[in-house]
Amino acid sequence: MTRHKKHSAFWKTFGTPGWIALLTAVGLFAALLGDGAWDVLAWVGMAIPTWYSCKGLMARKRV
Q1: Would you say residue 10 lies in a domain?
Q2: What's the pLDDT tens digit per position in 6-62?
């Protein structure tokens, strides 16, 4: 297996969870910074990972 294949497998496995973790961290940090636009960024930063989690749980219950 070449190095390119290993690199591709890594991002295929950890790419989406990494982006979700980064988005959550940005949302939590924005909640600490202030009001107004920071609140909107915090809501978005926390709502999208929550939506993905609920979507994943609902898909598992159907199977």
Answers
A1: no
A2: 678 888 889 989 999 999 999 999 999 989 999 999 999 999 999 998 988 888 665
What tokens were used for 35? Answer: 């009001």
pTM of the complete model: 0.72
Q: Please give the C-alpha separations between residue 42 and each of 6, 12, 21, 22, 30, in angstroms, as whole numbers.
A: 35, 27, 14, 12, 5
- φ/ψ of 60, rounded to 5, equals -70, -35
Residue 35 zone, left/alpha/beta (φ > 0; ψ -120 to 50; rest): beta
Take residue 51 and report the two structure tokens written for it: 């939506």
- How many domains does the chain fold into? 1
